[in-house]
Inverse folding.
């Protein structure tokens, strides 16, 4: 129990308003519909703008009662000995993965009663199944109702988490961490051995990740090698959430010779969070400040269970070291994030079980800051290190860039959902004289356009998406712009299929490429009508599918950087023809592009054979 703690409910009383509302809604509806959680939070924020919590933690050793521990231990032994599916679970597995009362500093004294009642009917119907089969049933049941909403809690309404386990159980909402804390408690309460797996950061994306492992799950025959491949079936999901979308579509493929679709997230390390203290953990041995992630004494490195990995000797710049430990870091949106540690020995450090096909930076950790200790490098699958800065004096003749982040599958799917959209022009109000002028036949890369080669004037432009394909995401479009003579943008009134929630019809002409319109598919007609007020000459129409808006945009200001011990500017440039063209830039370098006009997301990349390769 050393180091275990639980949030003090009194310290988060102000955020309880939100969870009380979640609980009332969930009890009434049984699930969250049409992103109602955002509406709930926005409404409370307007009424109580200062309802923010300042969580304080209580030590379990000081605040958990002996009575609770006795009841909990007796209950766990009871289910282990009485439930027929537990007969093959040995004592060591029971002690490590059923008996613990907490996962990641979160427990509830009434949890056993809650889950005993919740799954009573299920237990009676599955007593002939194995504990792995029952665990899968419970896990899938939780996935249907527990809403994992990273954006709501980490961006829109910060400060609502952490919260109590009781709130998680009754409100059924949180980030992936809370969802898995809840899932593990449910599994253990039903005699299923389970543990929380995690890593500090994705390799090619932002944020940490958590998922539940049922101990005894089938061995993975082919480990994940961090290379890009499309999702085909659920058997491809070796680690929860590695695909940007668990969807296969043969019509979604590389759109342009210079752009590739990114299907997968990559993973540098995998750790298991144990209740049992791990004797070789950094938390026990370190005498200096260490990153928050490694302060947990229960973390165990299980990378080789999931990921193709290598033991590598990483070169360092100095023979003498300012810190006792050195870390390998991955990059998120703005920072290098430590993902594993080692003890430096002269001008190198041995790192074990490191995920391949990944970008890393060796660094020290001091006062919360990352201080580079060696060159950034890419670990190739054969164990070779491709280091940056060593050949930075060589120049590239020229390079053309089209985006500041990878073109990810979910963005491609949103674009593909517009294929089949038909545009027509007419003058009659009933649209009976409609003339088809363009059909979207290929996947548009963020934006596309067409011209209307005629001098005739038209009052109405009709966008008909009645027969677009049914992809995983519903039809959505961010912007449609209509231009007359001399590139004059034409304005008009909008009518058509109503939008869903905040994705209203007017978003199509709000000059915002991120907001989008999503029609109500229950309506019989699926279309938008632009009424220009009077017949006008229409020369060109531009359309923008729903997207992350991370392509290079004409007229916006960008800055190119390369990495050499720090990010060094190579100059600023305005986007032209939706691209950037730079000359005499370092060859074999690591780059990133920052947009100074709008947006903040970016990823590091290399430039190989005329393409941006993302890391």
């Amino acid at each position: 129990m050393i180091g275990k703690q639980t949030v003090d409910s009194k310290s988060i009383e102000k955020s309880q308003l939100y969870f009380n509302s979640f609980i009332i809604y969930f009890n009434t509806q049984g699930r969250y519909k049409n992103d109602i959680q955002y509406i709930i939070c926005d409404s409370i924020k307007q009424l109580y703008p200062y309802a923010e919590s300042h969580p304080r933690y209580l030590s379990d050793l000081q605040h958990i009662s002996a009575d609770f521990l006795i009841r909990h231990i007796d209950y766990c032994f009871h289910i282990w000995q009485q439930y027929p599916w537990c007969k093959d679970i040995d004592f060591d597995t029971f002690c490590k993965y059923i008996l613990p009362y907490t996962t990641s500093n979160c427990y509830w004294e009434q949890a056993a009663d809650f889950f005993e009642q919740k799954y009573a009917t299920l237990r009676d119907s599955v007593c002939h199944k194995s504990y792995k089969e029952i665990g899968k049933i419970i896990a899938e049941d939780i996935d249907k109702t527990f809403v994992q909403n990273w954006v709501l809690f980490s961006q829109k309404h910060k400060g609502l988490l952490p919260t109590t386990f009781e709130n998680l159980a009754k409100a059924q909402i949180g980030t992936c961490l809370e969802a898995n804390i809840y899932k593990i408690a449910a599994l253990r309460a039903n005699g299923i051995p389970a543990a929380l797996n995690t890593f500090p950061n994705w390799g090619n994306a932002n944020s940490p990740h958590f998922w539940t492992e049922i101990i005894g799950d089938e061995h993975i025959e082919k480990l994940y090698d961090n290379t890009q491949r499309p999702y085909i079936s659920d058997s491809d999901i070796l680690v929860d959430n590695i695909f940007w979308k668990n969807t296969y579509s043969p019509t979604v493929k590389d759109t342009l010779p210079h752009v590739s679709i990114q299907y997968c997230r990559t993973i540098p390390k995998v750790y298991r969070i144990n209740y049992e203290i791990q004797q070789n953990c950094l938390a026990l041995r370190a005498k200096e400040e260490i990153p928050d992630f490694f302060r947990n004494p229960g973390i165990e490195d299980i990378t080789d269970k999931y990921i193709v990995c290598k033991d590598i000797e990483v070169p360092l710049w100095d023979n003498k070291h300012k810190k006792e430990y050195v870390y390998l870091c991955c990059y998120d949106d703005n920072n290098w994030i430590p993902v594993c540690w080692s003890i430096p020995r002269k001008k190198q450090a041995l790192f074990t079980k490191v995920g391949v096909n990944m970008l890393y930076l060796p660094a020290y950790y001091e006062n919360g800051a990352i201080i580079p200790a060696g060159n950034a490098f890419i670990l190739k699958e054969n164990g070779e290190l491709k280091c940056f800065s060593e050949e930075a004096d060589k120049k590239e003749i020229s390079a053309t860039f089209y985006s500041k982040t990878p073109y990810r599958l979910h963005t491609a799917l949103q674009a593909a959902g517009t294929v089949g959209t038909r545009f027509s022009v007419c003058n009659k109000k009933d649209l009976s004289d409609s003339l088809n002028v363009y059909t979207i036949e290929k996947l548009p890369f963020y934006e596309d356009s067409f011209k209307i080669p005629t001098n005739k004037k038209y009052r109405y432009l009709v966008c008909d998406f009645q027969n677009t394909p049914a992809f995983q995401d519903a039809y959505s479009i961010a912007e449609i712009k209509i231009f007359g003579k001399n590139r004059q943008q034409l304005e008009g009134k909008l009518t058509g299929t109503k939008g869903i929630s905040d994705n209203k019809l007017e978003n199509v002409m709000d000059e915002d490429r991120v907001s989008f319109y999503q029609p109500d598919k229950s309506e019989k007609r699926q279309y938008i009508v632009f009424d220009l007020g009077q017949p006008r000459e229409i020369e060109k129409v531009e359309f923008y599918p729903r997207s992350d808006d991370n392509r290079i945009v004409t007229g916006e200001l960008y800055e190119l950087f390369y990495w050499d011990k720090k990010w060094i500017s190579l100059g600023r440039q305005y986007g032209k023809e939706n691209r950037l063209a730079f000359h005499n830039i370092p060859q074999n370098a690591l780059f990133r592009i920052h947009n100074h006009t709008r947006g903040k997301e970016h990823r590091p990349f290399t430039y190989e054979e005329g393409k941006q390769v993302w890391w």
Remarks:
- The longest strand covers residues 527-537.
